[in-house]
């Protein structure tokens, strides 16, 4: 006969508000096998845990059921309390009386009855629980950082400085991300390149960091502490060990007019190129789609000019395999392009540009050397209209969310413009000014008060071209909701920040969740903002939601801290033993497994292995399935699939499940 | 072929008589005669929904019922005002079964049988459907003519789905017989080789989720049709802007302002004609031209043609048969037959108002 | 509760005892005005806003208040009659509020309560003449319409210069067409126009 203890928590009034906890404790005390049953206001509190511990010791309990909140919340707490009192922690189960009962029902007898049922079924389960030991697995103390924007850079440096090796994978030819494209940065107006490039160089030179640019993650298998990453290093067409970065090849390439990605299409680049002068690494890339040699089979001018003979037209993609302990995803974001906006001309007007394009215009190293010239004819823009919330907060056609960074960069743009074109006119159409942050609102006020930027509250309805100028039709909702028409040389749309392309595929490769807009999902919006739902995979920067630099950097340091803490722990990792096990029986059967290996093809984690059972003389008797408990995530797919019912999940055996159902 | 009914609506029997004349002429020439539905009533136009919501539903519903009773599967509604009311009505009836039953009882007729409502663009598309492409002919085009991708200026990136459908009258297409006859080539005997501004206005495009135009802000359906008729549609800004619509009689100042802006933009972009599909738009821009000229303080001689008039001309139909003489702003295009004499210059247009 | 209070929740909370303007609009058109976040895009694109006394976004704001005086001001406005129902606002509204639908409702309310704006006399007369013509014949009879309109507005000579021209071009019919099924047309009017 079991000796099971029941502990009903009121959770303040969260549970006791609709469930009669006293009655639950009372009636559950009568369930056969239950020797102790009490209720208390807060079981998770110190005195609450003491109640549990003392009851275990005094009543020599061999099983515990706690009726409280979700196991996600406090399973660890209660299992630890049991372990402290000498009970195997896996003999403790939680019934979710809060989310599954009190929160979703009205106060009534039926609600209390349901709570009692929830306890009763778990009592039947606990009766059949086995004491289990946590699984110990070895841990690789090497981090993989995906994405080399400011967030990825910061995370890599922090982990590397904590003494752990890091592999940084960046898909573009250079690290730097969007920050490398920015001119000056709010709220201090310091030059973006000037603060970024030292960090980029540090990454390249750090002994603990291996940098793979022009590379992408091919696949990631395994689990926390034991990932296996395959990285595709795309063919650069250059022998990196020979290249000195002199750049002669880029000056001789006859294909010159390819829109430069780095300059957001406002400038041009050759077929063999370095995206920008401060690129890290300073090694060119041959763009195979546009290279004459690759298209027509002849040219090879770059190969002829290269003083070290580093050009390799026949170079192939390389696959690099690496053992990884933890991953930081820092793949950043993107912005909507102007062709997204029908009423603003579907990208038909060259002088309607995005904020990112404005950054390139305003940048001293940009296509206009920092002069605000409009793309159509190169004329200095005498009047500029900035349109905030373009595609943001627009449930009908764009994104319903606020992109968060555009209010600030729009103020910055208007300010930079006024600093460059003193007599020019800057107008900003906005809906709200969202400038929460240290020195942020002051920054916006400066744009308005000192640089006399004209802020108009209203959305723009249409932009069209007339006589070589753009007509912007808006309204001023602070001026009696009057329609306003402004003629502008240049219109800058603060287009919505969106998930980077490829984010969805990457999330699927990593088995992490993502939201409806393809931003990666954090494990908890408040308390676990850098974790994902997959242990050992962390988030940093704008890949989680649009963010500015300070926020991206903070989150990156947070993620790096989590990785360092994980690596700092000990040599081995402990995991819950809820894994599948293929049964073993006495000879001559050895196992009921028939060796069909249906489970092998079904297991999403590739945890099924083959075991050969041999007789004394070494003859093969049969081949049966075996679960690698390091890889198994306890999903139970194989259990459901096994025709001979040879697999069971530890802690969730079929027998336990049936007992629960029968108790209903 | 499905039975296509035709609902002219009041305007096509009155002030927009030439719209009907040209439509029927085109239908006849294309061998697709139209059957007018029996004993129809007015759709109620804007006035009805300013008076009573149910009135605005019941009137078009009766028109739909007449089409159903007449056994029609499709109903051509050339007037975009009527088209709009019928589409909105059908949308509301399908969304609200209680309302449908109530109206059904009121007008004593079935409203459940589906009828496809066609606007004039959709109907003309079935007539000017492009023939099957000859693969050789496509391959013939010199790929070297296309500028390299990176050099394409942003302006040319307009979504011109019509490109593939350009009539091939100038490409020396000879080996017929290998593929289906091209109805465009057969019907368009006198290519409308002029620059035109295709004007859609409100009623063909909005409400967007009911009418589902090919684009809410920059539709191309009419441009493609005119392109098939040999014209060069201009890229302009006022395709879907409002002309003043129902204020044709009651508020001429508004008409002059709004229609004036539209005409002005078309002129700036080099259009030689505005093509419309709505009697109200036509009245506002053609009948009200004096007021517009006064408002803009300049002479604007840009003619306004109904789409079937322009296409009718390209099909070689007599101008008088198309009712071109009924316009306030004279239309004096004279088109030459395809592959005709080398001298194909259109005659200069006269811009005189009738005395 | 007295005074002016914004009522952002009204439309979703039909339990509210008094019929607020937003509630009435919700009941009749299904549009929830609390969705309007006052961006002004409707006003910015509206072809009539420069002629309006209350532009569309301002109208929405006024109707968000739980205030009979504000509602009356809206119903007495010229704007409800100036709205062309062109649908530009709805097509571009980021919150997809059917402003033309709301305007339709306000027009019928304004008529019902006799709060029609005096400047809208032309527009309303035209509408009435149009409806009269429909009631009589089931069709739009343009001569009758214009005659009726002229009689209502006493603008006998405005537009007269166009009339002979229209006759000359065969664009006006002297005798009206009529729908044969008079009974149904009558029934429609009887049951829908109160
Ligand atoms: C117009 C504009 C102006 C701005 N101005 C300011 C400012 O003044 N001040 C400020 O604080 N913030 C500003 N920001 C915000 C700033 O750009 C971001 O906060 C910052 O870039 C976020 O950094 P990140 O590393 O998270 O993302 P990113 O900068 O986007 O970097 C992501 C990196 O990951 C790489 N990557 C993406 N996918 C993959 C993949 N699958 N595999 C490998 N690598 C991948 C990308 O190539 C990129 O290098 C501005 C943003 C914009 C759009
Ligand atoms: S940050 Fe400002 S501009 Fe950007 S979406 Fe939010 S409110 Fe609009
Ligand atoms: S529907 Fe009315 S309010 Fe809306 S844009 Fe058109 S005229 Fe203005």
Shape of chain C: globular
Element string of chain C (H = helix, E = strand) = HHHHHHHHHHH
Rg from alpha-carbon coordinates of chain C = 20 Å
- Count of extended strands of chain C: 0
Helix content range of the residues of chain A, please? Answer: 25-40%
- Strand percentage of chain A: 15-25%
Oligomer: heterotrimer
**Averaging pLDDT over every residue of chain A, what do you get?**
95
Count of distinct strands of chain A = 34
Main sheet specs of chain C: none
Q: What is the CATH-assigned architecture of the largest domain in chain A? A: 3-Layer(bba) Sandwich
Radius of gyration of chain A: 31 Å
Determine the number of helices of chain C (DSSP H or I, runs of at least 4 residues): 11
Taking the alpha carbons of the first and last residues of chain C, their distance comes to 34 Å
| Spans where pLDDT lies below 50 across 5 or more residues of chain C | 1-17
The first-level CATH class of the largest domain in chain C is given as Mainly Alpha
Amino-to-carboxy terminus distance of chain A? 20 Å
How do the strands of the widest beta sheet of chain A line up side by side? 10-7-6-18-29
Could you tell me the CATH topology label of the largest domain in chain C.
Answer: Fumarate Reductase Iron-sulfur Protein, Chain B, domain 2
Structural shape of chain A: globular
Write the layout of secondary structure elements.
The complex is a heterotrimer of chains A (664), B (355) and C (194).
Chain A: E1 4-9, H1 21-28, E2 34-40, H2 46-59, E3 63-68, H3 71-84, E4 92-96, H4 98-102, H5 109-127, E5 135-138, E6 143-146, H6 150-161, E7 166-169, E8 184-185, E9 190-191, H7 192-205, E10 209-212, E11 215-223, E12 226-233, H8 248-252, E13 258-259, E14 268-269, E15 272-273, E16 285-286, H9 292-296, H10 301-305, E17 318-324, E18 326-329, E19 333-335, E20 352-354, H11 355-362, E21 383-390, H12 406-420, E22 425-430, H13 440-449, E23 454-457, E24 462-466, E25 469-476, E26 482-488, E27 490-495, E28 497-499, H14 503-510, E29 537-539, H15 549-568, E30 572-575, E31 580-582, H16 598-602, E32 608-614, E33 620-627, H17 637-641, E34 647-649, H18 654-662
Helix pairs in contact in A: 1-5, 2-3, 5-18, 6-7, 6-15, 11-12, 12-13
Chain B: E1 4-6, H1 17-29, E2 35-36, H2 45-51, H3 53-69, E3 74-76, H4 80-95, H5 97-107, E4 116-118, H6 120-127, H7 135-140, H8 183-187, E5 195-198, H9 208-211, H10 221-228, E6 232-233, H11 252-268, E7 273-276, H12 279-287, H13 289-296, E8 304-306, H14 307-314
Parallel strand pairs in B: 1-2, 1-3, 3-4, 5-6, 5-7, 7-8
Helix pairs in contact in B: 1-14, 2-3, 3-4, 3-5, 4-5, 11-13
Chain C: H1 21-29, H2 41-45, H3 56-64, H4 68-75, H5 79-82, H6 88-92, H7 99-112, H8 121-137, H9 142-153, H10 162-168, H11 182-192
Helix pairs in contact in C: 8-9, 8-11
């Amino acid at each position: 006969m079991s000796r099971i203890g029941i502990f009903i928590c009121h959770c303040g009034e969260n549970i006791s508000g609709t469930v009669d906890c006293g009655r639950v404790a009372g009636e559950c005390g009568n369930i056969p096998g239950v020797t102790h049953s009490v209720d208390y206001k807060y079981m998770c509190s110190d005195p609450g845990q003491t109640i549990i511990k003392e009851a275990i010791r005094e009543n020599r309990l061999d099983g515990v059921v706690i009726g409280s909140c979700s196991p996600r919340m406090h399973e660890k707490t209660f299992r630890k309390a049991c372990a402290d009192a000498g009970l195997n922690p896996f003999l403790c189960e939680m019934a979710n009386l809060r989310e599954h009962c009190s929160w979703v029902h009205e106060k009534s007898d039926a609600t209390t009855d349901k709570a009692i049922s929830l306890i009763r079924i778990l009592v039947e389960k606990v009766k059949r629980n086995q004491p289990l030991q946590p699984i110990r697995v070895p841990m690789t103390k090497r981090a993989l950082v995906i994405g080399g924007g400011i967030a990825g850079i910061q995370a890599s440096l922090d982990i590397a400085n904590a003494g752990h090796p890091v592999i940084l994978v960046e898909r573009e030819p250079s690290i730097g991300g969007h920050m490398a494209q920015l001119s000056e940065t709010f709220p201090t107006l310091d030059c973006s390149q000037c603060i970024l490039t030292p960090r980029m160089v540090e990454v390249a030179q750090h002994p603990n960091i291996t940098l793979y640019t022009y590379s992408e993650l091919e696949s990631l298998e395994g689990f926390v502490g034991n990932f296996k990453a395959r990285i595709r290093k795309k063919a650069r067409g250059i022998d990196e060990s020979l290249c000195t970065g002199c750049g002669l090849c880029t000056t001789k390439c006859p294909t010159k007019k390819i829109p430069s990605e780095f300059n957001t299409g406002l400038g041009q680049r050759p077929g063999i190129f370095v995206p920008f002068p401060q690129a890290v690494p300073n090694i060119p890339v041959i763009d195979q789609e546009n290279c004459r040699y690759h298209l027509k089979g002849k040219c090879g001018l770059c190969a002829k000019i290269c003083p070290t003979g580093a050009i390799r037209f026949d170079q192939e993609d390389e696959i690099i395999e690496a053992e990884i302990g933890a991953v930081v995803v820092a793949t950043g974001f993107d912005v909507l392009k102007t062709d997204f906006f029908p009423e603003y001309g579907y990208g038909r007007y060259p002088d309607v540009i995005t904020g990112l394009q404005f950054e390139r215009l305003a940048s001293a190293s940009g296509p206009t050397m920092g002069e605000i010239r409009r793309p159509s004819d190169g004329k200095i823009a005498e009047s500029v209209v900035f349109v905030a919330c373009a595609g943001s907060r627009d449930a009908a056609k764009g994104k319903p969310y606020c992109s968060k960074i555009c209010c600030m960069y729009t103020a910055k743009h208007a300010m930079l413009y006024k600093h460059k074109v003193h007599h020019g006119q800057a107008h900003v159409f906005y809906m709200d000014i969202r400038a929460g942050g240290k020195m942020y609102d002051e920054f916006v006020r400066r744009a308005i008060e000192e640089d006399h930027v004209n802020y108009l509250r209203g959305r723009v309805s249409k932009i069209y071209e007339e006589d070589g100028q753009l007509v912007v039709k808006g309204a001023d909702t602070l001026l009696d909701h009057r329609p306003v028409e402004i003629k502008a040389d240049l219109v800058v749309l603060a287009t919505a920040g969106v998930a980077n392309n490829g984010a969805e595929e990457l999330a699927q490769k990593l088995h992490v969740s993502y939201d409806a807009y393809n931003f990666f999902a954090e494990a908890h919006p408040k308390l676990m903002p850098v974790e994902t739902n997959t242990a050992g995979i962390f988030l940093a920067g704008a890949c989680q939601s649009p963010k500015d630099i300070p926020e991206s950097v903070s989150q990156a340091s947070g993620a790096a801290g989590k990785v360092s803490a994980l690596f700092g722990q000990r040599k081995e990792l402990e995991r819950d033993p809820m894994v599948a096990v293929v049964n073993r029986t006495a000879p001559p059967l050895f196992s009921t497994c028939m060796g069909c290996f249906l489970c092998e093809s079904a297991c999403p984690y590739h945890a099924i292995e083959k075991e050969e059972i041999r007789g004394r003389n070494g003859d093969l008797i049969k081949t049966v399935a075996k679960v690698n408990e390091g890889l198994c995530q306890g999903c139970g797919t194989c259990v459901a699939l096994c025709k001979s019912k040879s697999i069971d999940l530890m802690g969730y055996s079929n027998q336990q499940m049936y007992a629960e159902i029968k108790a209903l | 072929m499905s039975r296509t009914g035709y609902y002219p609506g009041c305007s096509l029997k009155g002030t927009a008589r030439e719209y009907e004349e040209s439509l029927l002429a085109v239908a006849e020439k294309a061998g697709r005669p139209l059957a007018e539905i029996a004993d129809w009533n007015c759709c109620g136009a804007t006035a009805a929904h300013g008076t009573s919501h149910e009135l605005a539903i019941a009137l078009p519903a009766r028109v739909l019922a007449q089409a159903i009773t007449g056994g029609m599967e499709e109903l051509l509604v050339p007037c975009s005002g009527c088209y709009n009311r019928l589409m909105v009505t059908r949308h509301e009836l399908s969304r609200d079964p209680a309302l449908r039953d109530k109206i059904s009882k009121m007008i004593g007729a079935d409203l459940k049988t589906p009828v496809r409502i066609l606007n004039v663009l959709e109907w003309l598309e079935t007539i000017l459907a492009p023939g099957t492409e000859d693969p050789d002919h496509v391959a013939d085009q010199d790929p070297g003519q296309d500028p390299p991708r990176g050099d394409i200026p942003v302006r040319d990136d307009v979504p011109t789905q019509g490109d593939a459908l350009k009539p091939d009258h100038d490409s020396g297409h000879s080996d017929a017989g290998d593929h289906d006859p091209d109805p465009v080539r057969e019907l368009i005997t006198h290519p409308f080789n002029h620059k035109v501004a295709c004007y859609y206005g409100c009623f063909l495009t909005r409400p967007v989720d009911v009418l589902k135009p090919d684009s809410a802000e920059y539709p191309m359906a009419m441009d493609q049709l005119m392109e098939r008729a040999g014209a060069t549609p201009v890229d302009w800004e006022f395709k879907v802007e409002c002309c003043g619509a129902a204020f044709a009689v009651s508020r001429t100042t508004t008409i002059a302002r709004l229609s004036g802006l539209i005409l002005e933009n078309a002129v700036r972009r080099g259009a030689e004609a505005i093509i419309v599909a709505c009697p109200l738009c036509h009245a506002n821009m053609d009948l009200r031209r004096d007021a517009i000229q006064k408002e803009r303080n300049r002479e604007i001689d840009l003619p306004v043609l109904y789409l079937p008039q322009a296409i009718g001309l390209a099909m070689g139909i007599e101008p008088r048969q198309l009712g071109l003489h009924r316009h306030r702003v004279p239309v004096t295009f004279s088109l030459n037959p395809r592959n005709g004499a080398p001298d194909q210059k259109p005659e200069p247009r006269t811009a005189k108002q009738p005395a | 509760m007295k005074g002016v209070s914004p009522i952002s929740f009204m439309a979703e909370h039909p339990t509210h005892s008094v019929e607020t303007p937003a509630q009435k609009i919700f009941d009749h058109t299904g549009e929830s005005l609390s969705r309007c976040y006052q961006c002004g895009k409707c006003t910015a694109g509206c072809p009539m806003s420069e002629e309006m006394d209350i532009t569309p976004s301002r109208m929405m704001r006024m109707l968000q208040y739980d205030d009979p005086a504000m509602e009356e001001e809206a119903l007495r406005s010229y704007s409800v009659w100036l709205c062309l129902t062109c649908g530009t606002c709805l097509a571009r509204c980021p919150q997809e509020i059917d402003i033309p639908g709301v305007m339709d409702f306000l027009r019928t309310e304004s008529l019902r309560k006799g709060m029609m704006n005096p400047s809208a006399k032309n527009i309303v007369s035209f509408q009435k003449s149009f409806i009269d013509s429909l009631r009589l014949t089931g069709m739009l009879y343009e001569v009758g319409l214009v005659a009726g309109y002229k009689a209502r507005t006493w603008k006998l000579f405005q537009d007269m210069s166009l009339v002979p021209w229209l006759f000359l071009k065969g664009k006006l019919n002297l005798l009206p067409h009529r729908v044969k099924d008079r009974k149904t047309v009558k029934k429609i009017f009887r049951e829908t126009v109160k």
